[in-house]
Amino acid sequence: xxxxxxxxxxxxxxxxxxxxxxxxxxxxxxxxxxxxxxxxxxxxxxxxxxxxxxxxxxxxxxxxxxxxxxxxxxxxxxxxxxxxxxxxxxxxxxxxxxxxxxxxxxxxxxxxxxxxxxxxxxxxxxxxxxxxxxxxxxxxxxxxxxxxxxxxxxxxxxxxxxxxxxxxxxxxxxxxxxxxxxxxxxxxxxxxxxxxxxxxxxxxxxxxxxxxxxxxxxxxxxxxxxxxxxxxxxxxxxxxxxxxxxxxxxxxxxxxxxxxxxxxxxxxxxxxxxxxxxxxxxxxxxxxxxxxxxxxxxxxxxxxxxxxxxxxxxxxxxxxxxxxxxxxxxxxxxxxxxxxxxxxxxxxxxxxxxxxxxxxxxxxxxxxxxxxx
Length: 373
Hints:
Blueprint: H1 19-31, H2 38-51, E1 55-59, H3 62-72, E2 80-84, H4 90-97, E3 101-105, E4 127-130, H5 142-152, E5 155-159, E6 167-168, E7 171-172, E8 178-182, E9 195-199, H6 202-211, E10 216-218, E11 221-222, H7 233-266, E12 280-281, E13 287-290, H8 299-308, H9 325-328, H10 337-345, E14 346-349, H11 357-370
Parallel strand pairs: 2-3, 2-4, 4-5, 5-8
Antiparallel strand pairs: 1-9, 6-7, 6-12, 8-9, 10-11, 13-14
């Protein structure tokens, strides 16, 4: 009979907020300059430098970053944007916000990213952009995607919300096209809430900056119908501290992932561990395994057992976007077998930098036990 553990729970994610973040926020509060200002501008410059982009535009969250990036590329009513259904719903909803239509294609079974071999068949005269998602921290196949986009004259909007400083052939995500990042608390770095657009195109940067602040180029003179999508100095202060630690935190996530993979294999856990393709740097926003039909138990049974053992885990994402009710109501009936299979099998384990080897061992042993034949 399975026993419920008395050990402390291991959460699925754990933001690292310490005295430096506290001091940065306090300094902003004492300054009295709380809204978007110099702190945001500094964060933008530092983030652009970290990514290797010419410009960075801070926003209120990752969803607004995606929305503004699309608008800055002129995406609107009647247009189509090719993307994936295996992602957080903000990926597709940001396209709907512009009046355009998301067109879903299937994913690769190993990285869970957009399958570039499926893209060209989805291109129509209405297609204006490709929005790859660098899911869980592994970059999409950007070399091939860029070739397709150039051949067809399409913009690239990278949903890099889960892949801060991930790389393909030494080039950071968010610099192959226009990049969009999220600083939600569970991400590799956080600003509490916040987002960022990266681009090398000065026109895209200018329009995104204008649209995030009610369409103003000059204060109280409105040239566009814009939004209030600004980041505050308070959030930027947190983000600046976190950005300074991001490289080290990513390295710790990579070390934790390597350790988990080795232990799961040593213990004979009946799961498929994450892959890292050649020339790619995976930053492990999530350490995502598959519980396949070869296992003696289902994914959901593993989730239940890990919960009994006090081991946090998450299913990202149990219902693909194209099967969500708001998309079914819009007539989405698309066959995405790899996406559907992934939704049935994926399970993400704790991978954050603060985990100890003892905790990682406990996670690996728990998964091995939960999947034992």
